[in-house]
Amino acid sequence: MEELLELKQLLLKGDIKGSLAIVEELEEMSKKDIISKIRSYAIILLLHLIKQQAENRTTRSWEVSIRNSVREIKRENKHRKAGGYYLTPEELNEILEEAFLNAIDEASLELAEGLYETEELEKLVDKAEIIDRALTLILPSETTSLRSPTS
């Protein structure tokens, strides 16, 4: 809110350069917030994809969680009025790569009643395959050819 008041004052003074700096700062803050939300949903998505692969099975609960996470990631990433997307497929891939560590930690607690340490679980699953599957679910069909270089 403080930034908006400052922007208003700069515009009233005719300070275009200062105003543009505030606008860029607001854009950056907005993008960071979107990335944070997408990352949170990505952790949940990856957690359930890891569990599916490690246990070679699925449950209705996992499927619903996957669908909900994908919907929320798509919703957060889509520009409402202007159309298009905030994050490129490459940026989404980077977020999934970063989120994987948190997801594998969570999965190690849930799989086989916590039997696996994180490092052991990482050896049991194919990270690239899981991230590629997540991208396939998230990306619009017309951009799937732009998917992860890890696939």
Describe the protein's topology:
Blueprint: H1 2-13, H2 16-55, H3 60-77, H4 89-110, H5 118-124, H6 127-138
Helix pairs in contact: 1-2, 2-3, 2-4, 2-6, 4-6
Organism: Floridaenema aerugineum BLCC-F46
Pfam family, one: DUF29
Protein name: DUF29 family protein
Structure characteristics:
about 75% helix, mainly alpha, DUF29 family protein, 6 helices, DUF29
How many β strands by DSSP? 0
Seen as an oligomer or otherwise, the chain set is single chain
Q: Main beta sheet: strand number and arrangement?
A: none
The total domain count is: 1
Low-confidence stretches: 144-151
On the 0 to 100 scale, the average pLDDT is: 90
| Shape label | elongated
Structural class: mainly alpha
- Over all CA atoms, what is the radius of gyration? 19 Å
Fraction of helical residues: over 70%
Question: What fraction strand?
Answer: under 5%
Order of helices and strands: HHHHHH
Cα separation of the termini = 42 Å
Q: Number of helical segments?
A: 6
Written account of the structure:
This protein is mainly α and 151 residues long. The protein has one domain (35-146). The chain is 74% helix and 0% strand. The chain is built from 6 helices and no strands. The chain has helices at 2-13, 16-55, 60-77, 89-110, 118-124, 127-138. α1 (2-13) packs antiparallel against α2. It starts with a helix and ends in a 13-residue tail after the last helix. 23% of the residues are buried. Mean pLDDT is 90; it is low at 144-151. This is DUF29 family protein. It comes from Floridaenema aerugineum BLCC-F46. Pfam families: DUF29. InterPro entries: DUF29 (IPR002636).
